[in-house]
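Changelog note: in this version the structure field was regenerated for every chain. One regenerated record is shown below for reference.
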Amino acid sequence: MHTNQAEDIAALREEIAQKSNFLDLLAMELGKAIIGQKNMIDRLMIALLAEGHILLEGVPGLAKTLAIKSLARAIDARFSRIQFTPDLLPADITGTMIYNPEEHKFTPRKGPIFSNFILADEINRAPAKVQSALLEAMQEKQVTIGDKAYKLKEPFLVMATQNPIEQEGTYPLPEAQVDRFMLKTIVSYPVMKEEKQIMRMNVSGDEPDIKAVIKPADILQARHLVRRVYMDEKVENYIIDIVFASREPESYGMKALNPLIQYGASPRASIFLALSAKAFAFMQKRAYVIPEDIRSICHDVLRHRIGLSYEAEAENIGAEDIINQILNHVEVP
């Protein structure tokens, strides 16, 4: 590492130390409403800092709605909850043109997508047209109503949820659309001690008082810092090796994985692994990425990007097992 580069990293570390204090404030406010679920909150913060979107999979009642609602309140940002149902129409999300009889013209009525934080609850319950309307807004950061395009306000984060146990009457998201989510996080049950606290808190009827501790502008500022977090070329190569190992396992000495993988991770996996690792490093108040950052976020970035063959399903081998094998085989820099 050159002297100039080392000085730049030291200067960046100081800047991150000053401008990442809001993370502790956010953690304190969220802790008032949410007990446990640290992994889910961390992943939500990574998606927010890395300008991505997140798909949460878990049974009902695991504080998914509460997490994003509390986060929006703590950031003083606008929040919308969209309950996805089979009769939902794209206009119910994006908005539509309404005729104004006084002015004798059509005027746009903006839908719930025009918020900073969107909860797309049970996204797999709505038909493809509705899903694609949401996913287009996620990708383009704009919505077309009539013949005019409207920019969505930043920060803009979609947190979609899907229930893993009910498949009846659902419309599974196509692979190309799932790929637009930066992270897919599995939300698990709380431990006994946490559940007792949750029960007490809800039975007492005390509403947690979450205060706005930062502004949306602070998040935008933090995003610029996240992109400046240093990533060595060896770490970049490590990301590329992980992604390519999911496409060509034989080249990495994992011939046994060949019949189990139908298709490997897309180029978005490399981009999102790099961005989310930078966000993870920023959350640790570090100015550079280490291989451990990649490993800790890898499952969330890759689990919805690896297509399993019928053989893998027959042998009860999941994406998690394949990612574990890849991480065990690919050489760590």
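Spot check on this record: The chain is about 50% helix and 15% strand. Residues 18-217 form a domain with the Rossmann fold fold (CATH 3.40.50.300).
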